[in-house]
Amino acid sequence: MSVGTAGPPPLAACAWEMALASLVLIPVAWAVDGPRTTIDWTPELVLLILYFGPVATSFCFVVSAEVGRRISVFAMSNLTLGVPIIGTSASVAFLGERLSLGSLAGFLLIISGVVIAPWAVKRKA
């Protein structure tokens, strides 16, 4: 806990924030997609759930929070803009997925934003 702050550390509150968000989003998912009638509980599915939930998501969240404390908000914002580009590129490279026109347009918008943002900040200063 930092000196001069009250309450729990921010990362401790994040677990509750995500749990509450899940409770709110479950009814929304049911309303949009309808209830799931069957789930094929294969060993692979169970392992994926156990890995992606507590391991991959939590680890990446904590690392992201720690990096965010050490670099500027501007740099962190630009780093997080790379997430959809890396994820989509990985799915194309490793899963054989095809890029849609919408994904390509999104890539161009993200890259444009990353290029224009520093220029706009320098121009304003």
From TrEMBL:
Bilayer topology annotation: Multi-pass membrane protein
Sorted UniProt keywords: Membrane, Transmembrane, Transmembrane helix
Keyword Lipid biosynthesis: no
Gene Ontology cellular-component terms listed: membrane
Signal peptide: none
Domain EamA: 9-116
Protein family (similarity comment): Belongs to the EamA transporter family.
Alphabetized PANTHER family for the sequence: EAMA DOMAIN-CONTAINING PROTEIN, INNER MEMBRANE TRANSPORTER
Annotated protein name in UniProt: Drug/metabolite transporter (DMT)-like permease
